Amino acid sequence: MKEALDIFLKYVLPFLVAYFLNMILNKVLSKKTLRGKLHLIFLKGIILALIWAVAALTALSGIPAFSKTWETAVASSGIAAVVLGLAAQSTLANVFSGIALSASHSRPFDMGDRIKIDSYDPGFVEDITLRHTVIKTYQNEIIYIPNSIVGSSTIVNYTQEQSFSYPIRVSVAYGTDMQKAMDVIADTIKNHPKHYGKRPVVLCKSCDDSGVTLQALVETEDFRDNPRTCSECLVEIMKRFKEEGIEIPYNKLVLLQGEE
Q1: What percent of the chain has pLDDT over 70?
Q2: CB–CB of 241/177 below 8 Å?
Q3: Residues in a beta bridge with 220
Q4: What is the 3-state secondary structure (H, E, C) of the chain?
C-alpha cells in the first residue's frame, strides 16, 4: 500500500496537478476572455508548456536513474540550450517570432482581425500558438502558418481602420456625357444603405480601345459588407445607365457577307 502511494505521489500526482492547472487556466483565460488580447493568448501557451515541463521533470526525478533531474537540468542548462538551439532551430524561430508578434505594441493584427499574409488567402485570425498562427478563410479553410513566416511576411490588415473601401470600375462609350455618368455612379454609391462616409469621387481611370473606364471607391463601415455592397452598386449603376441612355461598350463581332 505504501509502495503504491509512493508511486502515485512520485509519478502520477505531478501530471494530475498539471492537468488541473491546465483546466483552471483554460477556464479563467477562455477564448472569449482573450478575444482581442493576442499577447495574453501567446503567454497562456508558454505557461501551459512550462506547467507540463515541470510535471515531466518532477516525475523523472522520482526514478533512481534520474534522481538528480533538477540539479542536472540546472547545471547543464547552458549545454542544453546550445543543443536545443541546433536541433530545433525552426521551432525556436517560430516561438521567438510568436513572442515578437504578440508582445509588440504595434503588432500587425489581433484576434478576430481579417488579414492577408503574402500569397496566402485572406482570413480571420483564429488563434496563435507557440508554433503557428491559425487563419480561417471565407471558405472555412483552416490555414496554419508558422510564426517565423508570419513575422517576416508582408501583412495586410483589413480591420484596423474604421472603414473599408474597394474600387469598382465601369466603362462608358466615347461620346458619353462624362459628368452625367460620373454623377450616376456617385449618387448610386452614396444612396446605398451600407455606404459609409461622404459622396465618393469618381475618376477617369483610363481611356481604352472601346471606351472610357471610370472608377469610384465603395466604402463601408464593416469590411464584411463591402463585397455585397460593391456588387449591388454595380447592378444598380447598370440599371441607371440603361435608364439614362448611357452606353456600356463591349466587343462586337461584325460579319460581312460578300456577294457571290
Answers
A1: 69
A2: no
A3: 164, 195
A4: CHHHHHHHHHHHHHHHHHHHHHHHHHHHCCCCCCCCCHHHHHHHHHHHHHHHHHHHHHHHHCCHHHCCHHHHHHHCHHHHHHHHHHHCHHHHHHHHHHHHHHHCCCCCCCCCCEEEECCCCCEEEEEECCCEEEEEECCCCEEEEEHHHHHCCCEEECCCCCCEEEEEEEEECCCCCHHHHHHHHHHHHHHCCCECCCCCCCEEEEECCCCEEEEEEEEECCHHHHHHHHHHHHHHHHHHHHHHCCCCCCCCCCCCCCCC
Distance separating alpha carbons of residues 93 and 132, to the nearest angstrom? 11
Q: Residue 72 pLDDT > 60, yes or no?
A: no
Q: What is the pLDDT of residue 87?
A: 46
- Predicted confidence at residue 233, as pLDDT, reads 96
Cross-strand partners of 206: 213
Task: Report pLDDT digits (tens) over 115-142.
Answer: 889 888 888 888 887 788 899 988 889 9
Sole residue written with cell 466603362: 171
Distance between start and end Cα atoms, the chain:
113
Domains and CATH numbers, the chain: 2-75 (no CATH), 164-244 (3.30.70.100)
The pLDDT value given to residue 89: 60
Dihedral sign of CA atoms 141, 146, 152, 158 in order? positive
